[in-house]
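Input/output pair, single chain:
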Amino acid sequence: MLQPDIVFLDRLSETLLLYTLIGGSSKGSGYVYEDDGITIEYQDSSRATSAVTYFNYTVSDNTLQFSVSAASSVFSTFPLIRTYEIHLRGVFPATSVLLNGVTIPFEPFNELIHGQDGITNGYTYDGSKLSIIIYIRQSISTLQSFEIQIELLDSITHPLLVKVPTSFVGLLARCQSAKARVEYEWDVNSYR
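Output:
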């Protein structure tokens, strides 16, 4: 039996990427499991060689609450502080975003191409993916939980988001699929 390839990292990422599909659902959750990436000591329950970070969201009216927990434990290679990049897919744009009660400024998506200062928290909207992207560039302790409150422009149950295949999401997916099929069959790459 073939074993899957295992990738070992010298150290864990300083930035945690979280991708969450909202897609009309009023609540959801997930977690990220991280271990030391070097040993099999995770099998020994008397030693802390792994950590779990939980996240969840709830939506009421047009307010989305997104919570990230403190890590369940730490180990020698686990970062004590980190930055975050959070993608919330299947939503309309935000009118405001608060991190622990503090307003985060909007950054136009096209201006992100030129790069940011790397230290200011911010958020943007990617219309091609119907995604709010939140950049927490100021490091937060992994032993501390935090809350993000997002006021949405419109409901997550808006027909343009949830009625497949006539929703905008469905139409966009069909266009992307058709484009990929044409490129494959004609051996054309539109990104060249």
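Helices lie at 159-162, 168-186. Residues 32 and 79 are 14 Å apart (CA to CA).
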